[in-house]
Amino acid sequence: MPMLLIAVLVVAVMSALMALAYLGQRALGNAGWTDAFWGLSVGVSGALGALVPLPGEVSLSLRQFVIAGMIAAWSLRLFSHIAARSSGGHEDPRYAKIRAQKGEGFDRYMFGFLQIQGVAGAVFAIAAALAAHAPLTGLDAMDGVGLIVIGLAVIGEAVADAQLRAFKTSPGPRGRVCDVGLWAWSRHPNYVFEWLVWVGFCLMSLHMAYPIGLVAIAAPAFSYYLLRHVSGVPLLEDAMLASRGEAYRTYQARVGVFFPRLSLKRSRV
Questions:
Q1: DSSP string, 201-232
Q2: The whole model's pTM is what?
Q3: Contact 154/73 with Cβ under 8 angstroms?
Q4: 266: pLDDT confidence band, cut at 50, 70 and 90?
Q5: Do 226 and 120 meet the contact criterion of CB atoms below 8 Å apart?
Q6: Is the pLDDT confidence value at 3 over 90?
Q7: Could you give the CA distance from residue 167 to residue 162 in angstroms, rounded to a whole number?
Q8: φ, ψ for residue 186 (rounded to 5)?
Q9: pLDDT digit string (tens) for 234-258?
Q10: Which of 71, 97, 185, 228 has the smallest number of CB atoms closer than 10 Å to its CB?
């Protein structure tokens, strides 16, 4: 029951923060900012869920501070990356397409969409809260593995984003496809590392005598489903095929869509 109360708190905080995100994107006239607000909101609600004391917890433990710090670090990196991208003035093509389709109904659509995004984000924030409230005051071997996975995933995602940004600003003909660094192994390495973040928090929730920690499995499962099949890969693949055409089809044939597959040949398109 105490964890249920924390879950309710997390959902309520996410809903309120996404309502603010809605107002923010209206004021800025750029719905792409909502992705930045979403990442920040998950970090805030996840850290809050990690630090709120449960009955019997007389003081905050080391693991609560560590896990709150990890989700905050993930959140701030994601926020800064998307904020930098959105500040360029161009609206994310996904939202621009929705704006064109919805017309005058776009604002009404966005409010409902962002509330759904808030509930989805609560799944990830709750996973962090579950990890934080496992019945250990310190960290054990499984926690160590989880922390390593999260740390490497946050770094890997930052590297993938930096490599793509450097490629886009490098000289060369238009219509090229980024196939350097991590992008030579996966068509969406940033999404792979994003998924691994939640694998790490899940691992930190799996402890003996803590059956409710199994609920955290929902985070990596849901993350994979969203990224691979709903709002991530499918939309970007369609956009890249529309803008890169045959060059991207060649890249698709050579490089795995999500998980890496070994290839000894590289496209030069």
A1: HHHTT--TT-GGGGGGGHHHHHHHHIIIIISS
A2: 0.88
A3: yes
A4: very low
A5: yes
A6: no
A7: 9
A8: -145, 145
A9: 988 988 898 888 999 999 999 999 9
A10: 97
